[in-house]
Amino acid sequence: MSQTDAPDAYETLVDHVQQTTYISDATQLIGWDQQVTMPADGTPARAKQLSALSSVLHERQTDETLGEALAALEDADLTDEQAAVVRETRESYEAATRVPESLVRKRTELSAEAQDAWESAKADDTFEQFAPVLERRRELERERADHLDPDREPYRVMYEGLEPAFPEPLIESIFTDLREHLVPLIESIRASPVTLADPFEETYDEATQEALNHEALELLGYDFDRGRLDTSVHPFTSGTQFDARVTTRFDPAAPLEALNATIHEFGHATYMLGVPDEAYGTPLGEERYEIHESQSRFWENHVARTEAFWEFFTPTFNDHLGTAFDARRLFEAANRIYPNNLIRVEADELTYHMHIILRTEVERAFVAGEIDVEEIPQVWNDKMDEYLGVRPETDAEGCLQDVHWTGGFGGFQSYTIGSVAAAQLDATLREDVDDVDNLIRNGNFEPLLTWMEENVHAHGQRYTADELIEVVTGEPLTADYFLEYVDAKFGELYDL
């Protein structure tokens, strides 16, 4: 059945969804502006603007026309793609109709205020500035969860609203596997006599690093006709298949941190740019949230942290920074394990997941009311000591380091899910594509981009996330490939 053969109700639904998506994308764009280019005192107006737009969106998402179209399509004869559009729209509609418009406005306005409050609190290194906003965030998120499903624990509602295909018990099982495997692996690395290179003794100005990162994106295949590279307090990517914008941040003493962040965000951008142009405005032209981090972690870890990548990229790196490092030295520096590191986005590939587990435990306890807002810094620091043997000396290095709580709770798990899925996808890619390391060594990234586009991106939201993983790899999501990968890689690096 072609689009033209579809029932009238389907055409009505698609038109409505497309117009709603266009407004949503415009809303997203002014959110990007708030974090990147908006004047410092613009927040009061921006909060009102975003709140007004959220009301418009909510009205459209709960419109009776949409409900009538969905009812008419209940037993319609649809293609698989059309059925997926209806399925995704129905899920969004049913969730939206459960939440009052007044609450939607409050949440959106608070997110804008919270962004400003978090930036100020982090800059001043004072959690107390952010605490009242965070407490209001919890109240509104619990209220929303109660509307969505009053019979379930609020945090689970929040989490599964973001990761519906990977239920919390599955992720807790994966987290248990990671805890049991990674903690002793990290301890073995701590005890290893091997010391990997840490070559950076100089400082490198922002302009120099920005030029390096810009060229890295060009070499990887980022389409600057459909994207940008900017700076922000916290790196992120925003956009569509026509306009996918990457941000990063720079530390004069740590050029690899910005490079890792930029390539991580590039992975997100490739996913946005890879969904079908012709499906823009519908679920078939949108990425699957639960899959997003697999794309960023694939490019960050399975490409940019390989020895093959540094054999290719080292001359470019040296040219920009005026250094004379060899590829092995930079490969080691990119993969050095820092158990004492305090910052998640700067964490190495192994300890990163202990950061995620810590954050998940803190926010779950906070949402449940098991800890009060003023207790968060202490609980955070205690868990850092327990899991990584280090205590933050400041709130900025501790519980204020991430922006995510300005928008809600239940999203940190996606980073670890992404790493696990990335390893599983990488294993399949390497079965399908000949000599991946040699392609990377020669700077030929197009076959990797093409494989991801054809196998992951092109489907949009045709499949649920769990279905997509199984369609592409032939088996359900599992931590096995990730654990095999880190054992092999770090076993070689640290002579374990």
CATH level-two architecture of the largest domain: Orthogonal Bundle
What is the strand tally?
3
Classify the beta-strand content into a percent band: under 5%
End-to-end CA span: 57 Å
- What would you call the shape? globular
CATH class of the largest domain: Mainly Alpha
Low-confidence regions: none
Q: How would you characterize this protein structure?
A:
The protein has 496 residues and is mainly α. It folds into two domains: 149 residues, no CATH class; 326 residues, Neurolysin, domain 3. Helix content is 64%, strand content 3%. The protein has 20 helices and three strands. A three-stranded mixed β-sheet has the order 1-3-2, sandwiched between helices. Helix 1 crosses helix 4 and helix 14 packs antiparallel against helix 15. The longest helix is centred in the N-terminal third of the chain and has 29 residues. The radius of gyration is 23 Å and the shape is globular. The chain starts with 7 loop residues before the first helix and ends with a helix. The mean pLDDT is 94.
Show the helix and strand layout.
Layout: H1 8-36, H2 43-61, H3 64-72, H4 80-97, H5 101-124, H6 127-148, H7 154-162, H8 168-191, H9 206-220, E1 227-231, E2 237-240, E3 243-248, H10 255-274, H11 289-303, H12 307-321, H13 327-335, H14 352-367, H15 376-388, H16 413-432, H17 436-441, H18 446-455, H19 465-473, H20 480-493
